[in-house]
Each structure stands twice: as C-alpha cells, then as structure tokens.
Amino acid sequence: MTTMQNINSKNNYMPRICFMSHHLLRTFSKPIIEEYAFRAQIETIDASFEQVLSLANERISAANVDVFLSAGSNASILRDGIQTPVVSIDVSGYDLMKALIKAKEISPNVGVITYGDAIPSLDDLKSLLLLNLTQYHYKTPREAQACIQKLKDKGVEVVLGSSIIVELAQKAAMKAILTYSLESIRIALDQALEVGRVAHLEQTRFEQLNSVLQTLPEAVVAVNSQEKIIAINHAMKKILSVESHDLRGRTLSEVQPELSLKDVLQHHTEDEIPSSVLQLDNRDWVSHKAAIFENGQIVGAAITLHDAGTIYTADTKLRMFERKRQFTARHHFGTIQGDSVALKNTINKAKRYSKSEFDILIMGESGTGKELFAQAIHNESHRANQPFIAINCAAFPETLIESELFGHDDGAFTGSKRGGRRGLIESAHKGTLFLDEIGDMPLSLQTRLLRVLQERAITRLGSNTPIPIDIRVIAATHQPLKDLVALKQFRQDLYYRLNTLELRLPPLRERKNDIALLFNNFLKSSLTKNFKNHAVLDEIQHLLSSILNQYLWPGNIRELESVAKRVAILLPTLATPIDQNLLYEELPDIFTKHSISDDADQTLPANILHPHTSPKAPFENLKTQFDKATAALKMANGNHLQAATLLGISRTTLWRWLNK
C-alpha cells in the first residue's frame, strides 16, 4: 500500500519523506503522519525485508525522495543498502518500560523479540518488575518465526516487539504489544524533517556548483582516456594563448607538454595526486591533477591551474580566519575594565559561578560584554585549558544550524563529509559551550538542546548512537526570556534548565564611574602613535566628561567605543581652545538627546532630551513603580525599550513594575 501526504509549496520547501514500514506500524503512526502533513511530503509504503530495497531504489531512481523513515529490520536493511539518508524510529527505554508494564497486566510470563542484537538492560528490568522475562533476537523472517514458536513452547503468553513480531504472535494466538510509541515516531519525524531539508539544500548546492564550473576563475582542462581534450575553460585558453581556437579532440600533451596527463591515465589510481608548481605564460602556477572515474574505471583526467599569487593571498586570509575560529577564550577577569560597585559585584558573582559546574544564563543589553564575561568565566574555571566554543544562535540559517550544532554521520545526506563531521557542541567536549543570543534559537532546535542539557549526550544527524559529552553551558541573551516564554516563543523548560545560575550584566548607564575610564582607554588605543597634542587631549576629556556621564548609552560599551573612535579621528584637526560646535557636529546624539533610537518621539519634554537633566527626573514625584512605568510608557508612545531607558532600568525590570 502506498499513500502520499501533502504537496510541495512554492515558497517553503517541504522535505520528501518516504516512510517504509510494516502495515501495523503504518496504521499505528497514522495520527502522527497526518499531524505532519503540512510540514512535509510524506509517502507511506507497506514493505518489509525482500521488498524494501527494491522499492527504495525505485524512489531514488525517480529522484522523488530526500530521506527514508523506517524502523527495526527495515531501517537496518535500508541503511546498509542505499546512500540516501535513513532515519530510524527507535524504541526508547521509557517505551520499553511502558510496554513491559502493560504486558505484566496480562501475564507475568513475557517474551521480548528484537531485530539484530539482544538488549542487555532487560535483565535488570526483569527483577525490577518481577517478570519471568525471556528475550530472543532475529535477523530473518524465518528466525523471527522460530523465536515466536520457542516462546509459545515455553508457555509465554504475551510478546513484545516490532510490527512483524506482533503480527507473527497474533497468528500464533498469542497476545502481542508493539514497543514503539507515538512520541518516538514524532521524534523520528522531526529528525527526518531536518535531515531532509539539509539533504535537499546540499543537493541544490551541488547542482548549482556543477552548472558554474565553466565560469571558474581557475584554469581547467579535462581529457578522455586517450588524453583527447573534452573540455577546456576560457581561463586555460588564455594561458595557452588560444582563445579563438577549439581544442576539443586534440591531444593535450601535444598542445602543451607541461600539462600532460598521460601519467595520471596510466597509473589508474584513485589516491590524491600531490600538487606541483610549473611556469606558463611567464607566471607561476600550482597545478592539481586528478583522475576521472565511472563505476570504478578510469575514463579521463583533469588538470587545474591555480595562480600562485592568488594562493598566497588566500592562504594569508585563511590563516587569519582560522585564528579567529580557534576554540579558545582570550579574555580574563583582569581584562574587564571598570571600578564601579555594580561591575565589581558582577565580577565577584561571576568568579563564584566559575568555580561551579552549573549552567549559567547571562542577561544583559546589547554591548554590555556578555561574551567577554563568558570567556572570563571559562578561563577562571578548571576547564580553562579546554575548548571554548562560541555559537551565535542568531547567525546561522535555520536550515543549517542543526547540522552545525550536532554534526552529521557518514552518509547522513548527499555531499556530507566522508567519515562524518563533529558538530560545534561535540567540539566543546571537556570545555565550555557559549550560546550567544539564545533567545533567537528556533523552537524546533530548543527541544534537541534541552535533551542535550538533560542527558549530556548528542546524536549526530543520520546516526542513532548518542555520544556522551562533558560540557559546561553558558547562554546569553539581551531579550527578556520570561516574556518570550509567556508568548510561547521560548520553551519554559529550557529557560529553567539554562537559568540555573543567572548573571545580570549592568548597563553602562548604571556604571557612571566607569564611563570616563573606558572612554579614555578607548580614545588612547584609537589614536595613532604620532599624536602628541596632549593639551587638546586633556581639554576634550574635560569637555566631554559630564556629557558622557549623563548620556543613557543605549548601545552600552560598544557605543562608547564607537564614540571614542570618532573623537580620535577628529582630534588631529583640533586646536585649543576647542570649538565645541565641531563636537556637536561629530557627536549629535550625545549632545541632543538621551533617546535610545534616532526615531524617538521628538515631542518629549525638554528636560528629558537635555543632556544635563537626569532621565528619571519627570518620574521622581510618582510614588509607585507601577505609576512610574505607565508614565514612562505614555511618554515613549508605548515603546517598552525606550520607556525602560527613560527610567534607567532594564526591560525585564519594566515588565516587573508593570505587573505589580
């Protein structure tokens, strides 16, 4: 029996999932399949053992499947016989426990039959549940039938197993219980959705790459098994000074002996051929030769020339890029600048937290230094010499973030790295995993992250084997997660799991004593070494000191650093006495308003906008926090972020005041 659920959408690609199972499992799964009908194209096929591979290959040949979903023997056969990704519906320990309890209600004499290997942990459950438990395993239908007969001969009354086992037991007039649960099927479908999306994305990229090979800037020429040219791009023709000639069909070694591919064609090797350097057209080139195989037979070869100068430039950029990606933490508590009480209290709390192994949630506005604190906590902990993996949850496309976080197994999807690849979470083993902007993580991944935090194990895409990991998780956000939980945009259980230890970073407006210190340090580091006009430097520090202290700094330290850089660019053009109009022109925001944004309500009272007036002044006569919050909201035209800024508090505090 074959059915197809849903059709493709023009705007949002829906993965094509082929669910191959025994008819009993298909019937049992029907409610979940219907639940996912608008998220994927799901074809359900009744098949087992001898049929499953031929039916799967038909779908692969027709190119109408991204991922197969199956269970038990079917999943094992598919995974061994095809290259297309296969996601297996697994029986969890909880599923097995529920099935055993249900079986005990029927009879204490219970049999369990599994495909492949036996389950060692069942022996522990036998004594725990006071069951007379017998376990067999099979690899062929005949062996499965024999297992059923053995159980019946032993007087076993109820059998647990897959769909095939349930059907055979029922034919033998025995009670039977399916070990799979709807939740296990839902989990497998979620994984199949993501594997299907990634596989489709990789396939699309491969096709796009194939279509632009002729436009590559590298010089490329390919020959057949007789070394006759079958393809050559414009870049190679230009090197050979034959732009107007058609070289197809000519022998490459005769056209240019330096490019000969005879050695590659004669050696018939699939091993990587070392690159070499040659000179053509008065330039140095790095050449790479490769054999072309079809069905294990050599059918041609190709040579690619890379400009040596371009490689040198690319190598420099790559080394710089790799240095940025090194899994290390550079900052320590000693690099955090400031003497304010608010900062010192925060540092002391962070140092205490660094000595524990509990997860930490860092709350703070944008630009307050959340990653700096995360690195400092890591370097203060006993994990200091282990990896520090920083992940910006808002930076990855949703279609790729799961494979980046969890990695993938060998053959998980088309184009996946041979041998599989570790994900970023697995790379943090023994160290610290820093999840920045956790509030922007897609809901679909929050469930998997919660499981990682609970189990301290990850499962790569395309794999069924959990990999234990030893990590300390630090998450950070500038968003009010409690509000996101209330709006069902963030999982409540994940929030409380992450929020074991909460570290709130004070905004710069609460660190008045640190502003001058930070500004002066940023300014000095931004000035060129040749700047020697100390009189101008002293005067501008004096002129700006009170203004900087009264500005609200919505961008916090990041904004302060930007202001310092602007002043550093301006300083060489100034002379004493400094014309303040030049400062007004260069720093209009600092001198004209305390608003958090440029499009703030221009009708705000002058005492709010004037730089020498405290932003809290209009609210000092109001008695309750609720009255102050509502007044600020009214003044800010309902803008919560701006209202919080006017009050000099965080958005989280504003929400708390409004709920009093």
TrEMBL record:
InterPro entries, per database record: AAA+_ATPase, AAA_lid_NorR, Homeodomain-like_sf, HTH_Fis, P-loop_NTPase, PAS, PAS-like_dom_sf, PAS_fold
GO biological process: propionate catabolic process, 2-methylcitrate cycle; regulation of DNA-templated transcription
Molecular function per GO: ATP binding; phosphorelay response regulator activity; sequence-specific DNA binding
GO cellular component: cytoplasm
Keywords: ATP-binding, Nucleotide-binding, Transcription, Transcription regulation
Gene3D superfamilies membership: 1.10.8.60, 3.40.50.2300, Homeodomain-like (1.10.10.60), P-loop containing nucleotide triphosphate hydrolases (3.40.50.300), PAS domain (3.30.450.20), PrpR receptor domain-like (3.40.50.10660)
Domain Sigma-54 factor interaction: 336-569
CDD domains, A to Z: AAA, PAS
Occurrences of domain PAS (ranges): 205-258
Family matches, as Pfam families: AAA_lid_14, HTH_8, PAS, PrpR_N, Sigma54_activat
Entry protein name: Propionate catabolism operon regulatory protein
